[in-house]
Description:
Layout: E1 2-8, H1 13-27, E2 33-37, H2 43-50, E3 55-57, H3 61-76, H4 81-87, E4 111-115, E5 119-121, H5 126-131, E6 137-139, H6 156-161, H7 164-170, E7 176-180, H8 186-197, H9 209-220, E8 225-227, H10 228-231, E9 248-250, E10 253-256, E11 259-260, E12 263-265, H11 271-278, E13 283-284, H12 288-295, E14 311-312, H13 319-326
Parallel strand pairs: 1-2, 1-4, 2-3, 6-8, 13-14
Antiparallel strand pairs: 4-7, 5-12, 6-7, 9-10, 10-11
Helix pairs in contact: 1-12
Amino acid sequence: MDGICTLGNDKVYQQIVALLNSIEAIMGPDMPVCIYPYDHNTEQIAAEVARRPNVQLYNDKASMERWDLFAQRAWDTHPTAKQRWVQSGHSGYYRFGTHRRYCAFDGPFERFLYMDADTLLMAPVDFVFAQLKESDCVVYDFQRHDPTHVYDLASAKLAELFPTARINQEIFCSGFYASKQDLFDEERRNWLISKLQEGDAEVLYPMAPDQTLINYMMMRSNLAVYNFALNLPKEEITGCCVTSSHFQQQNNLLYDHGKLLTYIHYIGIKLNIFNRLCAGENIDFPYRDLFLHYRYLHEPEQRPKFTGKPEPYKTTPSLTTKVLRKLGLNK
């Protein structure tokens, strides 16, 4: 069985609802969806799932514990990760819970498409699932243009492990990728940990823990990664990120120079912006109305009504804020 999955807790409830509604609108009400819990804070999500017969909240504790342990073991091998996390103001493991998306390798779908909570589906993804017949992992993004958010490029080990050609061809954003059940069984997980212990760990980029790790898992295992952005004819390729300002909205869908996007990723817009917007604050960000359409698709009467000029989600910091930041007193 094929299905779409995502990750979250009640902090991203608004985004989860919008994503679920977009999947329903594009793929139909019977498309199976599984939500992997970031942590135990999932009461709102559980109530939402109860209203949707095609959606489940993952509850395989053994699977979640396996991947929790895997993530801990992986990061325990890193020479500087914990020091960097402390320096950035975090104690313990950084963004622990993001790796729960890996539960999809155990999960209910033989073939799955993972989508971050801050994405919306814009087009049917049958072509993505079809490509899994030939590939182990299928993606559609441009992360290769910024490998610094996948690997530590200063690592001497990186070129030894993955030549530049592989970096340019295989790395991907962990916000949208399709793969298959059972690719990472206990034997392969233990083998990956052993390689990290032997020195591979230094190539991992600690500030994007789930993204660097899934890329390492795929590439170190020599699994076949297929990127539509590298393989489609140039005239058919579309963007996917909210940072692209030229997309055109029509009938609650986005087009890139006349070509329908597969998905839109609201990357870089913090979750509190979505929450404040849904609470009634008139905050503007790219493709805001599109998000509001899908968030309130089944509850149009609850959609916030705004008056006046919206406040931009990115504001220029005041001189005082700039000085405090320079002094390290305000981050």
